[in-house]
Amino acid sequence: MVKPTEVLSTEDSPKDKIIVALDVESSSEAISIARELKSMVGAVKVGMQLFTACGPEIVRDLAETGARVFLDLKFHDIPNTVAKAGIEAARLGVWMFNIHALGGSEMMRRTADEVASVCEKEHLRRPLVVAVTVLTSTDNNTLREIGIDHSADEQVAALAKLASNSGMAGVVASANEVRAIRKMVVNPDFLTVTPGIRPKLATHDDQKRVTTFRQALADGSDYVVIGRPITQAVDRAAAVQSILCELED
Ligand code: C5P
User: Fold this and answer.
1) Residue 74 catalytic?
2) 9 domain residue, yes or no
3) What CATH number is attached to the domain comprising 96?
4) Which residues contact 114 (CB under 8 A, 6 or more apart)?
5) What is the pLDDT of residues 76-129, one digit of tens each?
6) Residue 7 reports pLDDT greater than 80
7) What is the C-alpha to C-alpha distance for residues 193 and 120, in angstroms, rounded to an integer?
8) Which of 74, 84, 161, 200 is catalytic?
9) How far apart, in Å, are the Cα atoms of 19 and each of 38, 140, 155?
10) What letter does residue 60 receive in the DSSP assignment?
11) Which atom in ligand 1 lies closest to the alpha carbon of residue 228?
12) 133-179 pLDDT tens trace
């Protein structure tokens, strides 16, 4: 029986909880950041910019550097299409990939089941499949704009419960909602992956529901996703170091 890809235990060091978002435009830049930060962070994330620019080859190349790769393409389509895309993500060797919880329980369940079954048959490592709840760039006004009357907190908690009941390994949400998710979801191993992390005095860019690395860990985030505060820093290694140092303040 093929085991799901390994999840870091809570004893692992804080640096292993950092996933660096490689939101850059070239393969050479992405690989160079991954190599530079390899021993300083837990994983790298390939999102739609890098994937659209470089294709699936970038995932294989990053995996070859020894990095764990989170494929952040936020699949959201009919259940069959998402399940088949998930199978291809597993065949690429990703450690984690995500789909939108808003796609509903059938889409999530079929993806989890079909990915698990192909991984078993083809002796592949089973990736963690996590569901995006509400983007961290979305606030209550954005939700109203698209016809959702619940607050971001309520919407995240409801989608987290649905995701957990539909076979997802965890959710992507703001760290501000981790406590509410833990109350709503019974499974103690349910993962929370939280973007929208900013060093104390940094700009928020387009993120709205932000928090610091220290607060995210205190609230119980399993993994944090950090992009621009690291990738756009003049000295990226120093930027990671200074984020880690926040824990000692
Ligand atoms: O640069 P920054 O730290 O804001 O990057 C956050 C990353 O996390 C981006 O790649 C963004 O696409 C991703 N993300 C997010 N909110 C989600 C899911 C993913 O910001 N809910």
Assistant:
1) yes
2) no
3) 3.20.20.70
4) 83, 84, 86, 87
5) 999 999 999 999 999 999 999 999 999 999 999 999 999 999 999 999 999 999
6) no
7) 25
8) 74
9) 11, 26, 25
10) H
11) 1
12) 999 899 999 999 999 999 999 999 999 999 999 999 999 999 999 99
The reply to whether 7 falls in a domain is no
Domain range for residue 225? Answer: 14-248
Placement of tokens 């080859």 in the chain: 57
* 107 domain residue, yes or no: yes
CA distances in angstroms from 114 to 88, 90, 157, 243, listed in the order given = 11, 11, 26, 38
pLDDT value at residue 152: 92
Backbone angles phi, psi at 200, to 5 degrees: -45, -50
How far apart CA 36 and CA 102 sit, in angstroms, is 36
Q: How many domains does the chain have?
A: 1
Residue 45 CA: nearest ligand 1 atom is 10
Separation CA 119–CA 114 (nearest Å): 8
Verify whether ligand 1 is closer than 6 Å to residue 195 (CB atom): yes
45 Cα: distance to centroid of ligand 1 (angstroms): 10
Report if residue 235 sits inside a domain: yes
Q: What is the pLDDT of residues 198-244, one digit of tens each?
A: 988 778 888 888 899 999 999 999 999 999 999 999 999 999 999 99
Locate tokens 């509903």: which residue?
104
| Biggest CA-to-CA distance, the chain | 49
Judge if the beta carbon of residue 23 lies within 6 A of ligand 1.
yes
| 1 — pLDDT class (breaks 50, 70, 90) | very low
